[in-house]
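Researcher: Hi, I'm a grad student and pretty new to this. My advisor asked me to get structures for two proteins we've been looking at. I'm not sure of the right format, so I'll just paste the first sequence and hope you can take it from there.
Model: That works fine. Here's the first sequence with its structure tokens right after it:
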Amino acid sequence: MTETLAYLDRFILTIKQLVNDGYAENEKQIASMIGERNKQGLSDIKRGKKKLKAEHITKLKASVPELNTKYIYDGLGEPILQEIKWEVEILMNQIIKADDPQKRKFLVLEVLDIIQQMREENRDLTDQLKKIKMITGG
């Protein structure tokens, strides 16, 4: 039971950080990201009245590619993978400042490559979730 509480606690801390860091305006937006119709669904999850499912985390990861799902599941690392966020932020600033159209195009392609990598990782997570559901009958 302690592990379940830690898992849920990490999810709650992650939600708070996502709102504080500007990934979402509020918890209502987070609820929408995880597939809940309203904030009440998220509140029920936070209070333990409704089960936090892997599907919720997968949907959140789809909306926030920087989300570190290993943190939520196992407590490893930080809730947000800052490295990716900073890398994209640096590249975006370089794109804005670039005078040379070729350099700008190269930088844009780098950002698109990072986004594609994140999508592929998310697809892998979705495939893993499907396998788990098949195994568990969920």
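Researcher: Oh nice, that was easy. Here's the second one.
Model: And its structure:
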Amino acid sequence: MTGLVLWGVAPPDQPESAGNTPSVEVPVPVNPQPEPTAPPPEPKPEPSVPRGGGGGGKKNETPKPSPVVPPGPKPEPPAPIVVTTPGGQQATCQVIPPDRPPNVTLRAGEIVFAAESGLLRLDRELKTQRILIADELMNVRSIAVEVSGTILVGTTVCGAGALVRVDPQTGRMEVVASGFKTPKAMLFEPFGTLLVADEIGGSPAWGYLWRLNLQTGEKASIYAFPPSEVATGMAVDPKTGEIFFTRRGLYRLSRDGVTRISVEGVLSPTSTTLFRGNLLVTAEGPPMMEIRTNGETVRMIEGGGAISDLVARGNDAFVGYANGRVGIIREGTAFATNVWQGMPSGQGVFVAVVPENIARR
């Protein structure tokens, strides 16, 4: 917002009074002689005026009007967004930018989560800050943070499933990949590619696990999910590159194919994350289990309710709940503690951690 400053105008000087000058009578000579031509009178100097205004001999001056500044050009509206449906059709719509930029800079180790039709940040002191609210964030089912400091969400735009990049500083959103129906899980692999599990429904495949290169735009299907469920949680072993996903069970995807891992005490697992070198696995209800990648049970953790998503940060784990909460499982504890309580929703809260190698912005 700009301000208009009105500069003060000094009060006008008082005019010189005629009564202050005494009258002089000139005697008439008896024999008048021709008068010599007198030189023109010299102009009287203006009386000096002290700095800062005050009285003097200045004449009244009419203040000059301020110049009229024409209004600047209106900002250009954002370009329309074009997405592609799984059937190959194109849809176009307009995404309205926020009235004011969020000006949020993410820091390494912070938690970003999707809830209440927007994105929020949980800093290292577990203080919450809202980043953005938008119609395009009402149906988020997956979330990840890029090393550039931008946020990727799997959501619905123009009536189609898409991956949308959100800039937490400007609030701008752009579609980086489309052709999905319901992107339900998203995870960066150690070498930078992105895994996306998309549920489309139908037969013979209920959905697909995609590998995307966001730099080149390359997209490849690496697994077709049989009926009737798609992956809702994923983890990657950084040493072997093996992919673990939950699909009413826990599965390992390796070069040799897909094998199911039995998880004792957890019926129909729905979420998983890599935690202290092990896997943290949960279902729609308690409990939560920490297991080794070979299926061996490490311990049981009280989940605290139906869980929609999990993410690990060092020796702590953060939990997104189906009823609109975020919890933390601290190192050395076997239960989750609430750190944020929102409004209950039908889709739950989805969480991501800001990578340690995030670029400074």
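Researcher: Is there anything I should tell my advisor about the second?
Model: You could mention this: Residues 16 and 57 are 7 Å apart (CA to CA).
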